[in-house]
Amino acid sequence: MALKSHLNPDPILLDVADEKGFLxxxxxxxxxxxxxxxxxxxxxxxxxxMAVAFPDRNFIGxxxxxxxxxxxxxxxxxxxxxxxRMVHGxxxxxxxxxxxxxxxxxxxxxxxDPWPKTRHHKRRLIQQPFLQQALRVLKPLAHLNIVTDHAExxxxxxxxxxxxxxxxxxxxxxxxxxxxxxxxxxTNFEKKYAAQNRPFYSVTAVKPGGMQ
Length: 212
Ligand SMILES: C[S@@+](CC[C@H](N)C(=O)[O-])C[C@H]1O[C@@H](n2cnc3c(N)ncnc32)[C@H](O)[C@@H]1O
Fold this sequence. Notes:
By secondary structure, the protein is of the alpha/beta class. Helix content is 32%, strand content 21%. It has one domain (4-206): Vaccinia Virus protein VP39 (Rossmann fold, 3-Layer(aba) Sandwich). S-adenosylmethionine (SAM) binds next to strand 3 and helix 7. S-adenosylmethionine binds next to strand 3 and helix 7.
């Protein structure tokens, strides 16, 4: 059995053998449907709302911090969600191994760690290796949504996207706007920074239509 579910009593916290390679929504969720992925889900606040608002879509959250990944998975399990899974791991590595080309209907990156010190910039998520994976796994015309509170990181993100090319850049629109939410993404960091009246910076990078 490639999915280690027989070893893992938690069906929400996905534990997949590396050698399994690419996964399909059918394997993970036992159903087909659109697949969206959030990187750095923290305590899972964004996916909680998406899972309720869009029951026909499937969602995966990838979170590096073990305690947060488990916290989010526990929330999803207690709500009985069938359409959301958590992964504890490093996102670029996990995507490279487990997500096939042209698979994702959307990617979400909300309040990524800004790593403000110059000597730490190399730790930032949004760099060329990440964009290469995003371009590979998104379907044509699918969106990569990014929101941050950090002006300097946002300038770096815009520059990195421009240097990478391929994506067209559009204004960000909240994925939850269509269900009447009046915040951007509703994550813990958004709530914390909104209370401090910090400005937010956002962009949607769209994969070209003709690109497979
Ligand atoms: C500043 S927090 C934001 C959490 C959440 N998105 C929010 O807005 O409340 C960034 C999160 O991204 C996670 N993270 C950073 N780099 C990651 C990576 N390469 N793969 C997976 N998770 C990552 C961190 O562990 C952290 O929980």
